[in-house]
Amino acid sequence: MKIRTITTGFPFEEGFSEERFASLARKTSQIKQDFEDQSYDVQTIRMSTEPWDSYIKKESELSKVAECFYQWTQAHHIDYFNLGPVKTPEKIRWLPHIITNAPNGFCTTQICDSHHVSYEAAWETAKLIKQLSIVTPNGFANLRFAALCNVKPLTPFYPASYHEGIASFGIGLENSDLLYTAFEQAKNIRTAQHHLKLLFEETYKSVEHIALKSARKHKLSFCGSDVSISSGVGRKESIAYGFEHLNLGVFGGPGTLSIAKIVTGTLQDIPVKKTGYCGLMLPVLEDHGLATRNTEGYLSITKLLLYSSVCGTGLDTIPLPGDITVESLYAILLDVAFLSIKLQKPLSARLMPIPGKKAGEQTTFDFPYFVNSAIMTP
């Protein structure tokens, strides 16, 4: 288990200065050190703001703010930043400024709230995904972009992270190895929840204890832990292989939905302060078992949405054909949005068209946090 991120969110008010940014960055680094002093491996520290359309009115301003945040994060040792979601259709067209002007910048759109889908925002988002797919080799730019559906503020995980209220920090773990271990011990679905609960309660109570102590020490509010299960790329970190320890067959076959529901119920019962998704993440390209089962034909976009109905965070790192149409991307986004509204739960879509690749062909990413897999059929 590792700490994937300590994410500090703050309001980017008029007159916000580098000095204030530096102060928050320093506190975040000190919180990281507090965890490292207790032998935790902290992978990244990140910063997020409120939705940027509340404070950026002109397209030229977005470029300047993105460049500014890039310089500040470099100067003050922050790994990534996120300017928060935009929902105004015409402003969605400005988002490439963040991707191109800040190599460590993330951004999102909000295509629905809890009651209504914005068809215009979904259409512009589909166009943007297609546009971003050719900005960098292998369609990699879409890693730093996602469409959000009914996602609330204060999740520490990227790309969905954005802020609301006073400055605060949250924590997200890379913890799929814990699920793998718990289910390896359980060996069947009847005892799976018991083993998972014991391991996750112990882990998150320890994390929360350090976080609360650090929050008091550095005078920065702690908004909670996103207890979502987040994958690593190792075989013994695989969510899919962990599921298969329960002897209901391969991930993607019958039984997968049942296990996913048990996982989510367990996470929601952990007695700690929570924020964010608090669900099961199924990133196809970030999990060895998911990538393998996808290549073997056990996964589809429809199945992943089905699992999201009981547990998940939507569609994440989905490799798609490079020639996918805007219309097809739009249709996928609408499915995610309406599922989110029907179930009243946060979902997101991080879709990655791969230039020059067709369905069934393999991705060729040279990225340590990806496992190459087959291009999925839209």
Descriptive account of the structure:
- The protein has 378 residues and is of the alpha/beta class.
- It has one domain (1-378): Alpha-Beta Barrel (Anaerobic Ribonucleotide-triphosphate Reductase Large Chain).
- α1 (18-37) packs across α7 (189-218), α5 packs across α12 (326-343) and α7 (189-218) runs parallel beside α9 (256-268).
- The model has no long low-confidence stretch (mean pLDDT 96).
- Helix content is 41%, strand content 17%.
- It has helices at 18-37, 59-75, 89-92, 96-101, 119-132, 176-186, 189-218, 239-244, 256-268, 288-295, 301-308, 326-343, and strands at residues 2-9, 42-48, 80-86, 105-112, 145-149, 168-174, 221-226, 314-321, 347-354.
Portion of residues in helices? 40-55%
> Which regions are unreliable across 5 or more consecutive residues at pLDDT < 50?
none
The number of distinct β-strands equals: 9
Structural class: alpha/beta
Taking Cα atoms only, what radius of gyration do you get, to the nearest Å?
Answer: 20 Å
Number of domains: 1
Q: What proportion strand?
A: 15-25%
**What coarse outline follows from CA principal-axis ratios?**
globular
CATH topology: Anaerobic Ribonucleotide-triphosphate Reductase Large Chain
For the record, the CATH architecture stands as Alpha-Beta Barrel
The averaged pLDDT comes out at 96
Biggest sheet architecture: 9 strands, mixed
Cα end-to-end separation: 33 Å
Question: Which CATH class applies here?
Answer: Alpha Beta
The side-by-side strand order for the widest beta sheet comes to 7-6-1-2-3-4-5-9-8
Q: What string, H for helix and E for strand, traces the elements in order?
A: EHEHEHHEHEEHHEHHHHEHE
- Count of helical regions: 12
